[in-house]
Design brief:
It is a single chain. The chain is mainly alpha-helical. It has 2 domains: about 110 residues, Tetratricopeptide repeat domain (Serine Threonine Protein Phosphatase 5, Tetratricopeptide repeat, Alpha Horseshoe), CATH 1.25.40; about 110 residues, Alpha Horseshoe (Serine Threonine Protein Phosphatase 5, Tetratricopeptide repeat), CATH 1.25.40. Helix 5 packs parallel to helix 8 and helix 8 runs antiparallel to helix 9. The longest helix is centred in the N-terminal third of the chain and has 17 residues. The C terminus is likely disordered.
C-alpha cells in the first residue's frame, strides 16, 4: 500500500457521505472508479462506491464493490462489509462465506481491534434477522450468549471493554428474533434460563427488556420458571 498522500477526492466523498449527500458521494465514487490511476486507488473507490450503494439500500451492487476491495486489500472490516451486503441482498450462503473470512482475518490492526468478533456476530445477526434468516441469526447470538456468564460483571463498561455488545442490546435483539419466529413461550423460557447464569445486574436487564417485549415478570437466580 502506498505511503504517499491520500487522494483529496477520497476525503471529499467521505465528507459527502457523512453529511448525508449520498447522491453526490455516489457520483464522486463512480467518477473516481473510472479515473483511478492505480490499483490501490481503484480498490478504495470500490469501497466508497459500495458504501454509497449500501446507504441507498442497493445491497447486491454494494456487495460486488465491497468484494472487489476485500479480494484486493483483504482485512476483517472489508470482508465484514461483504458479509453484511451479501446477506441483506438475499445471498445468505455467500454472506456466510464472507463472514467466515472476516472472523478468520487478522484482527491486530487498530480498526480490526475495535471490530471484535462478538460485535461482528451481533451486527451480522441483525442483518440475518432483516433478511429473514432467523435460524442463522440465533446461531450467531447463541455464540455471544456464552460470553456473558464468564465476564466479571454485566455492567456496560465491563462488557464493552471486553469487546462484547451491551447486554441490553443483545437481549433485545435475541427476543426480537424469537418474536419473529412466533416463539413467545420459547423466548420467555430462554430469558428465565439465561438470567440464572448471570449476575444481579444482568438479571435486572433481562427482566426490564423482557417486561418491555414479553410482559416477563421478575427473574431470580435458581428460581422456578413461572
Amino acid at each position: 500500500m502506498s505511503d504517499g498522500p491520500a487522494d483529496p477526492r477520497i476525503a471529499e466523498i467521505h465528507h459527502a457521505l457523512e453529511s448525508g449527500r449520498i447522491a453526490a458521494a455516489s457520483a464522486g465514487a463512480r467518477q473516481l472508479l473510472q479515473d483511478a490511476e492505480t490499483d490501490e486507488l481503484r480498490l478504495k473507490a470500490h469501497a466508497l462506491a459500495g458504501m454509497c450503494c449500501f446507504h441507498l439500500g442497493e445491497y447486491a451492487p454494494a456487495a460486488t464493490h465491497f468484494a472487489a476491495t476485500a479480494e484486493g486489500l483483504p482485512s476483517r472490516p472489508a470482508w465484514f462489509r461483504v458479509a453484511l451486503a451479501r446477506t441483506l441482498s438475499g445471498a445468505a450462503d455467500a454472506g456466510a462465506e464472507a463472514f467466515a473470512k472476516a472472523v478468520a482475518a487478522d484482527g491486530e490492526d487498530a480498526v480490526s481491534r475495535e471490530l471484535t468478533v462478538p460485535f461482528m456476530r451481533f451486527d451480522y445477526a441483525g442483518a440475518l434477522l432483516s433478511a429473514g434468516e432467523l435460524d442463522r441469526a440465533l446461531v450467531q447470538l447463541s455464540r455471544i450468549e456464552r460470553l456473558y456468564p464468564s465476564l466479571p460483571s454485566t455492567e456496560d463498561a465491563v462488557v464493552l471493554q471486553a469487546g462484547v455488545p451491551a447486554l441490553s442490546h443483545f437481549v433485545n435483539l435475541l427476543l426480537e428474533v424469537f418474536e419473529r419466529r412466533g416463539s413467545k413461550t420459547e423466548a420467555k423460557r430462554w430469558a428465565r434460563q439465561f438470567a440464572r447464569t448471570i449476575d444481579d445486574h444482568g438479571r435486572k436487564v433481562v427482566t426490564e427488556v423482557g417486561a418491555r417485549r414479553l410482559a416477563l415478570r421478575d427473574v431470580k437466580r435458581g428460581g422456578p420458571a413461572r
